[in-house]
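User: For this week's homework, look closely at the record that follows, marking any run of repeated tokens, and judge whether sequence predicts the tokens.
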Amino acid sequence: MPEALHFEPAAQEAPANALAEACVIGSILLNNAAYDSVADVVKPEHFYHTDMAEMFRLVQGEITAGRKVSPVTIAPQIRASEYLGAEWQAKNLPRIISAGDVRMAREAARSVAACWVKRSIQSYADEMRARAANSEATADDILTEALEHLEALAKGADASRPAVSAYAAGQALMEETNANWQEGRYLSGLDTGFAELNNKIRGFRPGAMYVVAARPGMGKSAFALSLAVRMAQRNGRGLFWSGEMSAEELMGRAIAAKVRMPLDMVLTGMDDREGQPERVLQRDMARMVNASIALKEIPLSIDDREGITVPQLLSRARQMKRSKQGLQFVVVDYMALLRPSAIARKSGNRTTEMTEISADLARMARELKVPVIALSQLNRQSENREDRRPMLSDLRDSGAIEQDARCVIGLYREEETLRTRLSSEGQLARNANEAEAAYEKRRNEFHAALERSKGKAEAIVLKNRGGRTGIVDMLFDGPCTWFRDVNDGERSEAW
């Protein structure tokens, strides 16, 4: 065991590991190849002791300049350094060399970086304590700033993750592929809960971000909840974040779909379909209660905190991932309702804000190794086209959303599109100077098209990295706000 160096801090000082710092530098001096194993883990500022930080900087400078470095070649720079000097060299360089162990260099570097993270947390905690006591900033602002700072630390620590060789990545993939082959599984990700959607995208792959996009009124939230409930049934616990609906209203939709009753009846317990509000029948009330009890078997957690940031959502998701139940997927309803960081808000640029949110969600998926299904609005361009089906170019606020997403699914309901052309009285507007016969023909054709489109929906796979694109036909139950597989039929179980 190497002798403890003289600059090892006392127990009450800030977190540091003097032996690890010496091991990193000593290993590089013994074998320059050790630098490649630590370069992505530590930087000079990660070292606690000023002299060791300076020593690492000198060694790093020589190697990055393409020169070999050894105890002999580095000696002149040590003597010339204002932080080190000849006396320091005589006393400490031999001890640093004796602490070197090329086999342990990367592990030592991780210890140095971990101590730096702990010191940074301590320092920032002191700063936040002072701000909370004296600042005029709101509690929400202070909390958001703290979370952003901690998230930045987490991203910095992630830099220590080693690169994976092509061979190792290929072998890992073949293990997964072979397991699927042995079991006869055609899904490469989590079961979406919808057979036809599974056939098209082969499930939601862990570590990827999926975007569901549509114009208002097409049923984004209904589709997201339908996915979440059915996925939780088949795959395990999920997290559903809603920025505009309470947990109670969301579960009201699930209950309405289960008992096949209009949502407003489930939310109020009143039936006004005959024009006069009356209490629902006792048997219907019992069905709703039973459906609410059945939700106990759906491992889905609802987060309805409005206006939170991605780091706040990630913090909760991390806790769930570490718990015994684990975490299989995250649904975000919807991206534009998440709050960007203070820095992005200061830019005053919505594109910058959405670019940050999109990148953070994609990063969250990779870190947690779960699929993140995020909802997004489409811009108005589609409304200016004859065919109003969504296109990738219709994604709102940021082109980064398309780039970050593994798959983009556009929702379209012809019924909703046609209904927007009706007046408030439910009539089709008559064109100027349009003859009666021509109007009557156009009106009949319109209502025939409306009748054909009732209860139908399309999930259009606009982008699918490494997979197929195209239309997945679905059914939409408007009164109950729920999506179903077209092959299951409109009377099939919601969940």
Summary: The chain has 19 helices and eleven strands. The two ends are 62 Å apart (CA to CA).
